[in-house]
Write a structure and sequence with these properties.
By secondary structure, the protein is of the alpha/beta class. It contains 11 helices and 12 strands. Strand 9, helix 9 and strand 10 form a beta-alpha-beta unit. It is elongated.
């Protein structure tokens, strides 16, 4: 996390100055960041960077990716009281948002029992790389970071260009081609034309099982990576994991994850 990023987030929260903390007398204090729930830790590296920007010393008791329990001291900080309280909320927001995503991702990874869990581009503008990092820390795959990472022809693309023409327009041989399908026939067509990845979009688990069986029957299953996406949650993830796909991508990881809860408490 570089200085420019830190300053952008701080400027958004602080405004001109922290008028409350400016009323405090000068003096050094120690404060603890304490967990209020249980989960998978993410955002600790960012929180440390934020405090260190103000020359606050940090003593972490965990590393990102660790499992933590309720009422644990995650990290202690020491320095000028005003300088600790000024970035407190920004640091805690990073911990809370990222740990919430990592915790949910970890749960989904465990429920999927070996099928790769991936994120989507349903992320918060300006915060995507941190949400993707949290998915990685939870044991998931970030999926694409940008539109330039891979070809992904979705339903709106395919209303304009048919599947059979996709490969005539391909410019970058180093980039994989993923095709989103909503029917078994389109799945077969995409595989026959040479898609690297096929995404079953908003298809039922039953329909995906039938599509996988069709690909297997035609000798095409081993030539493609199969991904299911759309409407997958912790409540139905086991059903989709059992369909025979390789990857499950969930916007749920970012748009529906609950924030974890941390507090900063001054000790002396």
């Amino acid at each position: 996390m570089n200085r420019t990023e830190i300053e952008r987030f701080l400027r958004e929260d602080i405004g001109v100055e922290d008028i409350t903390s400016q009323t405090l007398p000068s003096g050094e204090v120690v404060a603890d960041i304490i967990s209020k729930d249980e989960g998978t830790l993410a955002g600790l590296s960012e929180a440390k960077s934020i405090f260190r920007y103000f020359d606050i010393s940090t003593s972490p008791f965990h590393v990102d990716g660790d499992h933590y329990k309720e009422d644990e001291v995650i990290m202690s900080v020491k320095g000028e009281a005003r300088d600790i309280l000024l970035p407190e909320r920004v640091a805690l927001n990073f911990l809370s948002r990222m740990s919430g995503i990592a915790t949910l991702t970890k749960k989904c990874v465990e429920l999927a029992k070996g099928v790769t869990i991936a994120g989507t581009r349903k992320t918060t503008p300006g915060f995507m790389k941190y949400e993707k990092k949290a998915i990685i820390l939870g044991g998931g795959d970030p999926h694409r970071f940008t539109l330039s990472d891979a070809y992904l022809f979705k339903d709106n693309h395919l209303k304009i260009i048919p599947i059979e023409d996709i490969f005539k327009k391909r410019l970058y041989f180093t980039k994989k081609v993923e095709v989103e399908v909503e029917t078994i026939d389109d799945c077969v067509k995409a595989a026959e034309y040479g898609a690297d990845i096929i995404m079953f979009d908003n298809m039922s688990a039953k329909s995906i099982v039938e599509a996988v069986a069709r690909l297997t029957q035609l000798g095409l299953r081993g030539k493609v990576i199969l991904e299911a996406s759309g409407g997958i949650t912790p409540h139905n993830i086991a059903d989709y994991a059992a369909t025979g796909v390789d990857v499950l991508s969930l916007g749920y990881l970012t748009h529906s994850s609950k924030w974890s809860n941390f507090s900063l408490e001054v000790q002396s």
